[in-house]
Amino acid sequence: MDRANETVKREKFQTSFGLIAAAIGSAVGLGNIWRFPYITGVNGGGAFLIIYLFFVAIIGIPIMLAEFIIGREAKKDAIGSYKALAPKGKWHIAGILGVLAAFFILSFYSIVAGWTLEYLFSAILNKFQGQSVAEIGEGFAAFTSDPIRPIFWQLIVMSITVYVVASGVEKGIEKYSKILIPLLFVLVVILDIRAITLPGGTAGLEFLFKPDFSKLKAQGVLDALGHSFFSLSLGMAIMVTYGSYIKEDESLGSTAVKVGISDTIVALMAGIAIFPAVFSFGISPEEGAGLVFVTLPNVFLQMPGGYLFSVMFFALLALAAITSTISLLEAVTAHVIEKFNMERTKATLITATLITIVGIIASLSNGPLSHKKILGKNLFDFLDYLTANYFLTMSALISSVFVGWSLDKRIVENQLTNDGRLQIKYVKLISFILKFIAPIAILIVFLTGIEVIKLS
Ligand code: PHE
User: Fold this and answer.
1) Bridge-partner residues for 374, per DSSP?
2) In this predicted structure, what is the pLDDT of residue 1?
């Protein structure tokens, strides 16, 4: 790549804080707030945590770096970047899988993001008041299978997302991330203080942190690795696209480390906000969606100041979800802009419309269309399964192999050291990880995900 020739017009994140806030916005999402705390608890608490931290540090962060390198070197969208760096190869398949992953993930992620808005409004209107656990549970089932209400909220989520993405990299994504991410941190800190000052909350902290290696099985180790990719938004074209907006004087290494650490801290803080409260009221922690949408409204009902904290909690969840939907839409839109040479607003609208159509069908598959199955799953679950097990892992695998084996070593070194201006000691280590360790680890996750390797 001839750097002097770089397109003058390409938008950039203007400040380091804006860049980091945007990347954290993508990484911190529903995965941090309801999935991470729960999988940590059931897989042996502290034991799982140690493994998770290890994977984030030695595999997640290097892959994020690989994606940043590809994007910043090529300065194109995710598919265009691979094509620019390797015009003759087939490496751009990683970009195609990444863009497809972002497209399909957004189609169902926007549904769950919509649920968080419904719950935020229910919390504001104090709708859970006087309901029993069973009623809250039935209410959740009735809401998610309703043909209209989830779609109404999904459209609101998509409209907000379109507004931000259409406003551009600097005036949209960067601007709003700089406001929303600090707000998200403030909310989670307040919720943590409330939770740890509840009587009897220490059992919750024990559930989350106390290492119990007997509960950590091989599947738990794989979950840790798979979740680290999802949580850091890897393998979905996002970090390649964001990499292409990173200025030449930013350090890619320190950006990736800050994003990895912040993402993990928010996940831990979410666990600290949730479990002490759950245990303090003697409720057993439930898995997945039920934990956040059924158990917690019930916990808040019993908690002093519960009204305010429930509003804050669902605001936190909605914020985390919407900063992630922004990055998903950007990854797909950037491709449409460049591929069809289309103006940003138009590209955003067209992309979002297509995603919303798939999303509406996916939402209906939780209700009126639930009898239509693909490989035994409704569309909502099928999209989740397909993207998480195939698209995302394959895309991450190819990006790692590409930077580890095929991309010119000088490009990797120049990107990591900003053409020699930064003293970086870990260039060789990163190359080694991307060559051997990351591909082998991803391959194992991939083969177990599609059940070629079966764990007892
Ligand atoms: N990283 C986000 C989370 O943890 C999820 C996400 C997936 C965001 C894909 C963007 C893209 O919830």
Assistant:
1) 377
2) 43
C-alpha of residue 5 to centroid of ligand 1, in Å: 34
Q: Whose CA is nearest to atom 6 of ligand 1?
A: 233
pLDDT tens sequence across 169-212: 999 999 999 999 999 999 999 999 999 988 888 888 998 888 98
Residues with CB under 6 A from ligand 1: 26-27, 29-32, 105, 230-231, 233, 236, 238, 324, 327-328
CATH code (residue 359): 1.20.1740.10
Would you say residue 194 lies in a domain?
Answer: yes
- The number of folded domains in the chain is 1
Q: In a mutational test of the pocket of ligand 1, which residue from 104, 227, 233 has the highest number of ligand atoms less than 8 Å from its CB?
A: 233
DSSP state of 377: B
Nearest CA to ligand 1 atom 11: 233
Nearest one of 33, 62, 70, 38 to 323, comparing CA atoms:
33
CA of residue 232 to ligand 1 center, whole Å: 7
pLDDT at 283 over 90: no
Distance (angstroms) between ligand 1 centre and the Cα of 327 equals 9
452: buried, middle or exposed (CB in 10 Å: 19+, 13-18, 0-12)?
Answer: exposed
Domain of 292?
9-449
> Is residue 290 included in any domain, yes or no?
yes
Q: pLDDT tens digits, residue range 128-137?
A: 998 888 899 9
Give residue 455's pLDDT: 67
Please tell me the distance between residue 321's alpha carbon and the centre of ligand 1 in angstroms.
Answer: 8
Per-residue pLDDT band at 2 (split at 50, 70, 90) = very low
The per-residue pLDDT of the chain, averaged, comes to 91
The predicted structure's pLDDT at residue 362:
87
Confirm if 390 and 68 have CB atoms less than 8 A apart.
no
Give the Cα separation of 272 and 268 in Å (integer).
6
Ligand 1 atom closest to residue 327's alpha carbon, by position in its atom list: 10
On whether residue 455 sits in a domain, the answer given is: no
Q: Is residue 14 part of a domain?
A: yes
